[in-house]
Amino acid sequence: MTRPYYVTTPIYYISGNPHIGHAYTTVVADVLARSARTRGPAFMLTGTDEHGQKVANAAAEHGKTPQEWTDELVPRWQALFAAYHVEYDDFIRTTQARHETAVQAIFERMRQNGDVYLGTYEGWYCVSDETFWLESKLAEGRCPTCGREVQWISEEDWFFRLSKYRDRLLAHYRANPQWVRPRSVYNEMMAILEEGLEDLSISRTNLEWGIPIPGPSAGSGRGVIYVWFDALLNYVTALGWPDGERFRTFWPASVQLIGKEIARFHTLIWPSLLWSIGEAAPELVFAHGWITVEGQKIGKSLGNAVDPFALAERFGADSMRYFLLREAPFGSDFSYSEEKIAQRHNNDLGNDLGNLLRRTLTMVQKYHSGIVPEPGERTSLSMRFADPSTHLGERVAGLVTQLQFREALEAIWELVTALNRAIDERKPWNLHKEGRQHELAALLYDLCQGLRWLAILLHPFMPERAAEMWRQLGARGRIEGDWRQSLAAWGDDGSLPPGTAVVPGDALFPRIDLVSA
Length: 517
Ligand code: ME8
Known about the structure:
Blueprint lengths: L4 E9 L6 H18 L4 E8 L3 H9 L4 H18 L6 E4 L3 H17 L2 E11 L4 E3 L17 E10 L5 H10 L4 E2 L1 H13 L4 E2 L1 E2 L19 E2 L1 H6 L1 H4 L7 H6 L4 E5 L3 H14 L8 E4 L2 E3 L2 E2 L10 H8 L1 H10 L7 E2 L2 H31 L11 H7 L5 H10 L3 H22 L1 H6 L3 H22 L4 H11 L9 H4 L31
Parallel strand pairs: 1-2, 1-11, 2-3, 7-12, 11-12, 13-15
Antiparallel strand pairs: 4-5, 4-6, 6-8, 9-10, 13-14
Bound molecules: ligand ME8.
């Protein structure tokens, strides 16, 4: 049996409206989860990071209490993910009791095992990134990550003994060179490790919006737990750490997706926190690149946020999902523009895929009374795509598991191209004219089976449009079923048998003209 699969996204700060970057990571996680569900149990987690100075400031600017503010904004994130056809298994809010109680228990356990101790912190703090910085790391006196001003903080704080875990981290990195990807991020983290690690301040004295420090000072206004300590733990509190059934089933995570700017937290601090409570590190942390506009990372505070709802509305959520996964090798930065999205939508999706379905169904109607014909002899298409040694389903599953989404879509497009070519070369209209009914029927059967395969293979990427393909083909049963069964053979698995009536409908990807739009 396949090991249960667990994929997470970062939990997002709700200091403003969500943007396309938030949709991006969450869509990628959804593709992984949907793909994993075709093989066995899978669990996808996303959510919101609601504590900290940054969220407290945003609430204050809007004349709200932080709780009012977050309660108001959380539905926007949930609506965003629904608008992008994301089906998460759980959505964690760090203000939920299940999270706060577990975080306090973990803090307490670490205080007992000596990994958490009281000390004095003096240094710089970036509110926007909720990050402590050493003077030597500042860039011309500003935050080296976001370039904003930093604040001088001097307070008595609780510390986590991060330095203690340096050797174990080094050993873990050396023994598992694939545990942080891509390689550039792995190398960057190794360089930090080789320099050495300082203990981490994990409380904030002058902040009220957070999880109270447990123990003797609890509730006495003597400070809250540092937002990153609180936030990182969401990945296990959501599963019911320490003894929830989900935790026992799904931990350690198969893949934790993050943007590269938060790699340090997830690949140095996070495993150390886990080890401190006797848990295993995740199998893989993948730090992906940024969506940029004119070379700048898209982000609310940089003022170049594009409205992700408007984009899904305009191009269709599945076309956006396709664009996000197809545009660049996963891991790299890529720039966003409406022209590029429109091109992918019109060319790859409209011309290649949408027309293939439309042409095929029109011919099945015209030449075969709208009924899927009987298969002919074994054909070159089935040999090319369904042979065990070159099986397209296996290749795609392998590429998705490796997070090579662009390559997986390119592999799927080999089938799209081959089916289009079969139509262009074999010219069904001539076969019909020449009365070669048997050949014509065999070709139409092949095209229908090819499209059945495409709907199944594309389902994790474009769930709604793939389901519409499935519907128009007249296919029965579950499109999201076990690939080993549904793609076992080129021919029929019972979902699209000869005699099925096809149900042609509207164009899958109606053309979008940017100028007149
Ligand atoms: O960092 N391109 O939250 P956040 C690609 N709360 N992905 C992007 C992106 C862009 N331009 N902008 C944002 C936080 N993202 C913390 C995380 S986790 C325990 C706590 C995505 O709201 C990307 O996944 O700033 C990035 O890491 C995340 O949103 C940051 O979201």
